[in-house]
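> Could you send the BHLH domain-containing protein prediction when you get a chance?

Sure thing. Input:
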Amino acid sequence: MDPAAGSSSRIDRTSVERERRTRFRQLFSHLYSLLPPQAAQMSTQKVLERATMYVNQLRNRVQELKQKHSRLEEESKEMGGQPSLAFPFLSIIELDSTLEVNLITGWNAKFQLSHILKILMEEGAQVVKAAANHTAGDIIMYSIHCQPISSRIGIATSRVHERLENLVS
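Output:
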């Protein structure tokens, strides 16, 4: 056997392995970016556990929303088939130590995003990401991700929900 051929196949295996590890790191980094914001770096095992838990929470939330959608459709049929969109729609999801606030409203809302952010900060939340998207039909969707300013104190989700309900209604 030619010694140069053995060396060449070893280099090929090394480069294939290096590319595999690079691809794995890229995919892992992408997975980490899809999770709710974290206070600190986590081990690979913790990220995978967190991702599994997050997917299960999202799956449960989808089920809840499907059931709510079905109930609303039934109520709509009972009321003569006219769809009733109740605005504003507020949803607060607690995921471990993070909080996700979703709000759907129309252009004629009597509040601004800054009012929502102020309430969150007053209740001990640090806003990590906030977005407002305009959709067809003059509907605005707000999505806000928060984490507690202090992990020892946390965020009083029920109080946040109560104050935001008062603001948007």
